[in-house]
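stuck on this:

***
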Amino acid sequence: MKSRIIRTIICVMICAICFQCLSGCYESSKEYKDNAEEKRKNADPKEIEFIETICGTYLVSGTGVMTGGATYDDTGSSKTTFTNLAVHVVEAGGEKEVQIDLEGDYRGNGNVSLESPTVKYTDVKGYDVTVTFSFNDGNPHIDMKIFGDLTLEDTGDYLTETMTLSGDK
C-alpha cells in the first residue's frame, strides 16, 4: 500500500515538473516569434523582398579538390565534380538572417542584405562556408565556396578540401 502511494506521489510530481517545463518552452518560443515579427515590421521593405527572393532551393554544381594526399575515391583522384546538389536557403528568424543547408551538410546561419549579399559561417565540422547571392537576368544565383582543414581519423593524415559550387534557384 505504501509503495503504491509513493509511486503515485512521484508520478504526480514528475507530471507537474514536465508541465512546467513544457509551459516554459512554449512561452520562450512565443517570445522568440514575437521578437522576430517585431523586427520584421521595422525592417526596410526592400530588404524583406531581397530575403524572400533569395530564399528557396538552388540547384548547384562544381568541383572539389583535396590536397595533402587524400583522395575522393579508389582511383586516387584528388579532384572530383559535383553535379545537381540542392542548396536550401530559408529565413532563420532574424531580420536579415538566413540558414543555408547543402544536401543536409555544411549547415549554418548568417546575415545577408542588399548591401552585403555574402554570408560567411563555420559549420559544425569546422568547414568555412562562404555563399554570395547575385542575380542573373533577374533570377537568384549563388556562388558557394567551402574550405576545410581536416585530419583523417584512420591514418592521421592532414588534408585540405576546397569545394566551389554555383547555381540558380
User: Anything to note?
Assistant: The chain has a mean pLDDT of 80. The first helix runs from residue 2 to 41. The CA atoms of residues 8 and 161 lie 58 Å apart.
